[in-house]
Specification:
Elements lengths: L6 H21 L1 H13 L10 H21 L5 H19 L6 E4 L2 E7 L2 E3 L1 H19 L7 H20 L4 H17 L4 H19 L3 H11 L4 H4 L4 H13 L24 H33 L4 H25 L17 H19 L13 E3 L3 E3 L1
Antiparallel strand pairs: 1-2, 2-3, 4-5
Helix pairs in contact: 1-3, 1-12, 3-14, 4-5, 5-7, 5-13, 5-14, 6-7, 6-8, 7-13, 11-12, 12-13, 12-14, 13-14
Length: 395
């Protein structure tokens, strides 16, 4: 069956993952030295080093690629049976974040579960389990999906429960990605566009005041609206301002690999949230276009797997995974370019993070298995048809 896998999808995934490892090696040297110096002061290490994040991310990548290749060999239809228990487990992990002694704080968010030396971010795995469960759920309600009572309302309740648990951490970036995934899958499955638009308007009118009730989130919106205000640049707008300086410094051809200046304490979270800015500084505009082309190829090949999936479940899972990677990439890049308020979300396959690598590579493993079962002839199936520009017919 190996010859049937989408080798371009596999090659681009491995290429981006290894490229991300190379970028971590470059941009994380200062932050690695800082954190290992703290470990020396605490008696954990003997001497500081510059490779703390690189070594950890190396194991994230190796284990993640192993998970991807393993899941690529498992028939994707198995997940149809496991979708509900997997989704319930992920919801249970989200709830456990609020139990004292289990959830761990990082910055302004309580998004991690610490198990010995390993930290897990349940919201990352929830993205995948939601895709699997939604695919099953939407498949069963094929004839009712366009109705308000049996289609949109149950969908809205399911999505609200999931996003509420993630928003309470709070993790607004993951909320945006989860909503994007769910709404896209609902639309592709045949959901009524009027229901989607009205539901989005109602949700925004209810949720936005609640979101803005958090002082630090209001500050992020203020930094987005008034980025040039001198009173903001050195406080709440510092991260976005430094990201723009970093990207601008790269110009067309970059400063050269390893030659970023901003990574030396100027660019916060340089190994994760703002790695795109550091990449822009070192590689420049022209080389960054190549990276964007690779991400575009990855998403397009994912939707191609959806187009040729042999059944409705495979179609919806492949479309959900492709939407996840695409939207998360767009959100991360938009934040770094000051086109969106700061959300704190990683760049898929490139940013530092075990949960992010494991969940996305696991999802691509499932996507590869769907591609291995693809049918390239036209099959008449009773499915609602959607046309996606540049990709084709999802039927």
């Amino acid at each position: 069956m190996f010859h049937k896998y989408d080798t371009l999808l596999l090659g681009v995934t491995i290429g981006l993952t290894l490229f991300g490892l190379a970028m971590i090696a470059s941009v994380s040297v200062y932050e690695s030295f800082q954190i290992t110096t703290q470990h020396v002061n605490q008696g954990i290490l003997d001497v500081p080093n510059n490779s703390f994040y690189l070594i950890r991310n190396f194991w994230h990548v190796i284990t993640g690629l192993g998970i991807m290749l393993f899941l690529a060999t498992i028939p994707y239809r198995l997940w149809e049976k496991l979708a509900l228990p997997c989704f319930l487990i992920s919801l249970g992990l989200l709830v456990s974040l609020f139990i004292p002694g289990i959830g761990a704080d990082y910055g302004t968010a309580r998004s991690w579960i610490s198990v010995g030396p390993i930290s897990l971010q349940p919201s990352e795995f929830t993205k995948l389990t939601l895709i699997l469960y939604l695919a099953v759920w939407l498949q069963k309600r094929e004839q009712l999906i366009q109705t308000l009572e049996q289609g949109f309302f149950p969908f809205a309740i399911l999505l609200s429960i999931t996003t509420l648990l993630v928003a309470m951490q709070p993790d607004i970036g993951s909320v945006l990605v989860i909503v994007s995934i769910a709404v896209t899958m609902f639309f592709i499955a045949g959901g009524n566009i009027v229901h989607i638009v009205v539901g989005a308007a109602v949700s925004a009118s209810i949720s936005l005041p609640l979101i803005l009730s958090k002082a630090y989130i209001r500050a992020r919106f203020l930094a987005f609206i008034r980025p040039d205000d001198p009173s903001i640049i050195e406080t709440i707008g510092f991260q976005i301002n430094q990201a723009l300086i970093s990207i601008g410094s790269g110009r067309f051809f970059g400063q050269g690999y390893g030659k970023s200046i901003q990574k030396f304490g100027y660019l916060p979270e340089v190994q994760s949230d703002t790695i795109f800015a550091a990449m822009g500084e070192e590689l420049g505009f022209i080389r960054m276009l190549i990276i964007l082309a690779l991400f575009s190829t990855l998403v397009i090949r994912g939707f191609k797997a959806a187009v040729h999936a042999p059944d409705r479940f495979g179609l919806l899972v492949a479309a959900g995974i492709s939407t996840w990677i695409g939207f998360q990439t767009v959100i991360n890049i938009s934040v770094n370019l000051a086109l969106m308020p700061l959300t704190g979300i990683t760049l898929p396959l490139i940013s530092y993070g075990g949960s992010s690598h494991w969940s996305i590579l696991a999802a691509i493993g499932i996507l590869l298995n769907i591609s291995a079962h693809s049918v390239h002839s036209t099959i008449r199936r009773k499915k609602t048809t959607r046309i996606i520009p540049g990709i084709g017919r999802l039927s």
